[in-house]
Amino acid sequence: MILDWKKLAQKIYDELKIKIEKLNKKPTLVAILVGNNPASLTYIKQKRKFAEYVWMNFELIHYEGNIEEEIVLAKIEELNNNSNISWYIVQLPLSEHIDSQKIIDRIDPKKDVDGFTKENIGKLFLKEENWLLSCTPKWIKRLLDEYNINLKWKNVTIIGKSNIVGKPLSLLFINHSATVTVCDIFTQDISEHTLKSDIVISAAWVPHLIKENMIKKWTILIDVGYNIVDGKMVGDIDFPNLEKDNYITPVPGWVWPLTVAMLIENTYLAHIQVWNE
Amino acid sequence: MILDWKKLAQKIYDELKIKIEKLNKKPTLVAILVGNNPASLTYIKQKRKFAEYVWMNFELIHYEGNIEEEIVLAKIEELNNNSNISWYIVQLPLSEHIDSQKIIDRIDPKKDVDGFTKENIGKLFLKEENWLLSCTPKWIKRLLDEYNINLKWKNVTIIGKSNIVGKPLSLLFINHSATVTVCDIFTQDISEHTLKSDIVISAAWVPHLIKENMIKKWTILIDVGYNIVDGKMVGDIDFPNLEKDNYITPVPGWVWPLTVAMLIENTYLAHIQVWNE
Fold it and tell me: Is A135-254 the same fold as A12-111?
């Protein structure tokens, strides 16, 4: 059975559209982009498209790849101090000569709609959930909620330990009473964990890492992987062989829009909080 | 085989003693205590004892249990602004009428030698490890280091999800390449996780939760539990029956001093950083 994230994303957009139409002041999403990384350009295009779809404004600050770190830092400072800008995002990755963490550390946590600052990671850890929860963990939880899947009493395996997927997701699920196992490249045998799991989430970016013999029937499978094999998009989960007897998200194509939907929703939630609408 | 934390704590103190003797300015550890919780009083007594043992100064700010929250907050503000105080701790738990998180949120992260502030939790998450790493996760890692136990390729089960043990420990171990499973009261069957683990750490505070039939031979067992049964201290791990064929920490008595040793070490590390000694 397919876990239909496309449908969920559409539902979120349509609900937001109605809510935003009623606002006196339209929310604006500001994004900083450095360079021309193709994935980043696609992402930014999606963000603009869906922001505009729900009648938000979208402003892009686009720097050349060789921009000096100091100039980006000065812009961050300016955005922090500009009371008309209530939130903004910095599209990752930045160029290699720029220290991404240094940039993120300078974002005012109250304006950090991506939830990447230490302050907002701390809030996630302490279960002070709000509109600053980062987008990938947020949509995964939301997708499960949509299908009334409670995390309590569930064994969950998360594969991958990145700062924007695996680690924040594990904290979110730990806080919601799941029994969480987090695997990485140094895990001796991933299948000994996945075989006893009710939910498996892969964000390892390894094509078809999760195969039929690694899971029991009717596992909930969420694929955050995104791999190009012979010019074709392929997930971490062997969708063709696992589609039949499991609850599964389809092969790539909709990870990004659902992440974007959460960002747009975060921006809306931040807006009504900041402007008391 | 016993994992001798008593010996390790003594070693840490003796090394610190030599280092602190050479300092021009003696470090001072300042602690805020509210009320007369017996466990807190014991803890504070230990902190004073070992601070003084390594020739540090110890200052206690002791309020009555019914103190107003505002007064504690004002003291925090004063300590933050006092350039002679480089760090301090707030002994938990506070009285019930005081919002502990509100108090912790006001501590200047640079002075937060317990590592409880959101900023310092964020640093732990991002593997920016420093002297602000909170004390219980820190000693567990240190004890494993002492016995040359590498976390890479290891299955680890952590039982308990508190903000000061289970959750920060899981982040620390995730960052050090362990495959980490975090269980709580909603875990269907703890033994299915512990039976395939190389390391089991219990911080559930349930007497003898971990029994012989729940682990394989020669598991590394670390007991952070502390329970009183019939007036006697008992750990989470059934020590009498598990002592023989495992690597195991002894029944309570030395959890506290090792936690205290880490606090004293953090204070020393903070001192040399702040005062450039």
Answer: yes
Predicted-assembly ipTM surpassing the 0.85 threshold = yes
Q: At what angle do helices A38-53 and A5-21 cross, to 10 degrees?
A: 50
- Indicate the SS3 state at residue A257: helix
Q: For the domain B135-256, what is the CATH code?
A: 3.40.50.720
Tokens of residue B179, six digits = 């495959």
Catalytic residue among A114, A198, A223, A238: A114
The catalytic position among A75, A91, A141, A167 is A91
CATH number for B12-115: choose from 3.60.70.12, 1.10.3720.10, 3.40.50.620, 3.40.50.10860.
Answer: 3.40.50.10860
Query: pLDDT digit string (tens) for A120-151?
Result: 999 999 999 776 788 999 999 999 999 999 99
Distance CA A94, CA A78 (A): 19
Structure token digits, residue B270: 């903070």
Whole-model pTM above 0.80?
yes
Residue A91 appears among annotated catalytic residues: yes
Q: B-contacting residues of A 189-228, CB under 8 Å? A: 192-193, 196
Looking at the complex, report in whole angstroms how far the Cα of residue A179 sits from the nearest Cα belonging to chain B.
5
Closest by CA position to A190, among listed A202, A198, A207, A179:
A202
What is the CATH architecture of A12-111? 3-Layer(aba) Sandwich (3.40)
